[in-house]
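Extended Data, record Probable membrane transporter protein
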Amino acid sequence: MMNEIFVSLVIFIAGFIQSVAGFGFGLITMPILTEVLDFKIASSLIALISIITHVAIIFSYQSFFQFKAVLRLIIASIIGIPIGFLAVDALNKTVILTLLGILVMSYVIWTLLDLKLPKLESPKWAYGFGLLSGLLSGAYNIGGPPVIIYGNCSQWSPEEFKSNLNGFFLFNTVLIIFGHVLNKNYTVEVGKLFLIALPFLLIGLGIGTYFSKFLNPSVFRKIILVLLLFISIRLIYLTLSSVITRYI
């Protein structure tokens, strides 16, 4: 019961963050939920429930969505997602969680340093970013960083950023869910957690959409990034310390 309450609260917070910042659902939920749930249960649950966040945000910013801007990303991610699924099966849990923590921490540090990236003149760059996002989505359910970088390099407006990003994630998530179905990862436990957490997600999305009108997006993102940094450091520490303890 405590796990169910904890999962619901995490989903609520992640839904709030996603609706305000336009991203962050997988980055927030995966490092935290893998501490209390089996990795495959957490991954399949997040894929199932995150599709609702993408639909809600696209609906709010539908007039800014540009399908051509994400088409190449989508094509490349189709190749990357199944490879990512295979990579997870080939690695043990400690390696997966450590890599997950490193990936999140690397993204946070890059963003906090506010590194200036060049404008991408050729749309063909989307294939590389889409492939990498697909790999990370299939393996860890955190395909956001490569596409966020691509969006920044393409100089999307804030509205285009939110709509295009979530349009891409929507398609990606459908493929990821299909992969989980093929791998038989959707169990009774996942379904139960989904039904319990769903109302919390909807409330979080609603509150986030309302407060996004009053919050400074730049300041809010920095607060979330600092939070993600602590989460990723803790995840790496916990996984590595468990390995050290095992051999001492």
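Summary. The mean pLDDT is 83.
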